[in-house]
Amino acid sequence: MLKLSNYGGNPYLGVYCASNESISLLPSDAGQDLASNVEEALGVEPIKLTVSSSHIIGSLVAMNSHGIVVTNQVESAEVKRMEEHLPVLRLDDRLNAAGNNILVNDHGAVVNRNFKPKTIEALEDFFGFECLRLRVAGMDTVGSVCKVTNSGGICHPKTSDAEKASLQEALKVEFSPITLNYGSAMVGSCLIANSKGAMVGNNSTPIELGRLEDALRLY
User: Fold this and answer.
1) DSSP helix/strand/coil, 153
2) What is the DSSP pairing of strand 2-5 with strand 197-201?
3) Contacts of 174 (CB under 8 A, 6+ apart)
4) Are 147 and 187 a contacting pair, CB within 8 Å?
5) Phi, psi of 17 (to 5 degrees)
6) SS3 helix, strand, coil % of the chain, rounded to 5?
7) Per residue in 96-147, pLDDT tens?
8) I need a labelling partner for 27 at 20 to 30 A (CA). Which of 10, 20, 69, 108 fits?
């Protein structure tokens, strides 16, 4: 299922929310309409919380079905809340906005090429598979310019053929270059998604939504 929404009038849902196959992490002040829409569209349990006392959860968290990676500035009580649902890894790197710098599904991960070697090692141990360092469309923040589920992926419209091939090999799904929110190339910031559905910013056009449905196999 595909639904349009926003967070407090802001259509960049991927900055504020994160999701996997079973849960969605939403800002603690998210309205009930947003929580209900997420539950319906993605078929998940919505969980309201903060990360580092902040509402930009999507930028600070990366997760798949097996675990949550979060900024090392997260508070202990926030980690405890997340650990009620999944194992948690604190990202010990200066590039600690996990959601911006990590693109992950249940098959693989693509990460900011500037991560420290010990960060890559920690991520690979945590997820249980290799992490590919990659730059996409001239940007190292792969989580903000791409979005992936276990069924499909989308990426910045200037993603090269070689970059797209690398994404597909690492994450084991097909990728499509598209825009969302009326022409935004930062597609990872525009939505949350899993293999069952997606919630996308309500500035997105019908043409963009159609391309998104095809890319993520939301039939």
Assistant:
1) strand
2) parallel
3) 152, 153, 168, 215
4) yes
5) -135, 155
6) 30, 30, 40
7) 999 999 999 999 999 999 999 999 999 999 999 999 999 999 999 999 999 9
8) 108
Computed on alpha carbons and rounded to an integer, the radius of gyration of the chain in Å comes to 15
Greatest Cα pair distance, the chain, in angstroms, is: 43
Whether the Cβ atoms of residue 95 and residue 115 lie closer than 8 Å to each other = yes
Return the amino acid letter for 173.
V
SS3 196: coil
Parallel, antiparallel or unpaired: strands 175-177 and 153-155: parallel
DSSP state of 151: S
**In this structure, which topology does domain 2-215 adopt according to CATH?**
L-arginine/glycine Amidinotransferase; Chain A (3.75.10)
| CA dist 142 → 8, 55, 74, 196, 207 (Å) | 25, 21, 21, 22, 24
Q: Which residue has the tokens 């900011």?
A: 112
Helix (H, G, I), strand (E, B) or coil at 89: strand
219 pLDDT tier (thresholds 50, 70, 90): confident
